[in-house]
Specification:
This protein is α+β, with helices and mostly antiparallel strands. The chain folds into 2 domains: 2-81, Carbamate kinase (3-Layer(aba) Sandwich); 83-245, VC0802-like (2-Layer Sandwich), CATH 3.30.2130. Helices cover 27% and strands 29% of the residues. It contains 7 helices and 10 strands. The chain has helices spanning 32-40, 52-57, 113-123, 144-147, 153-164, 188-202, 227-239; strands at residues 2-8, 29-31, 60-66, 75-78, 88-103, 128-133, 137-142, 169-183, 206-210, 217-223. The strands form 2 sheets. A 6-stranded antiparallel beta sheet has the order 6-7-5-8-10-9. Pathway: Amino-acid biosynthesis; L-methionine biosynthesis via de novo pathway. Keywords: ATP-binding, Kinase, Nucleotide-binding, Transferase.
């Protein structure tokens, strides 16, 4: 088996950002898709493009190791893994997100309305992160700094709103955060039940939710001031306590048990 070894300053990919959660746990195994979603939504261990050679090969593992702690087993990223005992793998936070709500009764039963909306974003060269839609509305998030420099954000965002208002009503909320649960979406009902219970107890409102076509990611948009508190509360719920599922032990090649104790 071919593999690429990546040396970092942490013990592999972690269950969350150690700057937010003090007691994160290394994740022993990830799939290409899980690692890509983690990188895109804020994990600092891997760049979103770093997985592309492995994905193209479909036969190459990526091993993330700690150059300051060589004995740590690290994380193995491969094409597939056993998901039977996996619930939530990691929780990441992406800050400074802008949420755009687009509402128009003309969406109802009309052909091409979504194409018109996204054509505005294409013409303005704006990349969209997360999308959710209903019969008469679309909510989407974007990271202004990916498209514009700091000095351009205000003016360019106003121009984007102006163009969108030609076809719909628009509401914009800045200073939001995307909370992404990298998880086994085949167990979505259990994950969402526990997630919304925790957020209700914390008094944190979810402005938007998206699962989309991804089989490994559920994204929630919350107020940016509440993002870190939400991450800590959810990490406690899913990773700090007894496991509800104990997988059979197997070696990942470095002597580490496949399926970390973080899967709960």
């Amino acid at each position: 088996m071919l593999f690429v070894q990546v040396w970092k300053d942490v013990d592999g990919v972690l269950t969350s950002d150690p700057r937010i959660v003090s007691n994160t746990i290394p994740v022993t195994e990830l799939t290409y898709e899980e690692a890509t979603e983690l990188a895109f939504f804020g994990a600092q261990v891997l760049h979103p493009l770093a997985m592309q050679p492995a994905i193209r090969s479909q036969a190459m593992d990526v091993r993330v190791k700690n150059s300051y702690n060589r004995q740590a087993s690290g994380t193995i990223i491969s094409k597939a893994r056993d998901m039977s005992c996996s619930l939530v793998t990691s929780i990441v936070l992406k800050n400074n997100v802008t949420l755009v709500d687009i509402v128009s009764s003309r969406m109802l039963g009309q052909f091409g309305f979504l194409a018109n909306v996204f054509d505005v974003f294409r013409s303005q060269q704006v990349s969209v992160d997360v999308v959710a839609s209903s019969e008469v509305s679309i909510s989407l998030s974007l990271d202004p700094k990916k498209s514009w420099s700091d000095g351009e954000v205000g003016e360019e965002l106003n121009h984007l709103i102006f163009e969108l208002e030609k076809i719909s009503s628009v509401r914009v909320r800045s200073g939001m955060a995307i909370l992404s649960l990298i998880c086994n979406v085949e167990r979505t009902s259990e994950i969402l039940l526990r997630t919304f219970k925790v957020l209700l107890e914390e008094g944190i409102n979810v402005s938007m939710m998206s699962q989309g076509a991804s089989k490994v990611n559920i994204s929630l948009v919350v107020d940016g001031d509440e993002g870190q508190r939400a991450v800590r509360a959810l990490h406690k719920e899913f990773f700090e306590g007894p496991q509800s599922c104990l997988p059979s032990a197997s070696s990942n090649g470095n002597g580490a048990t496949a399926q970390a104790a973080s899967r709960r």
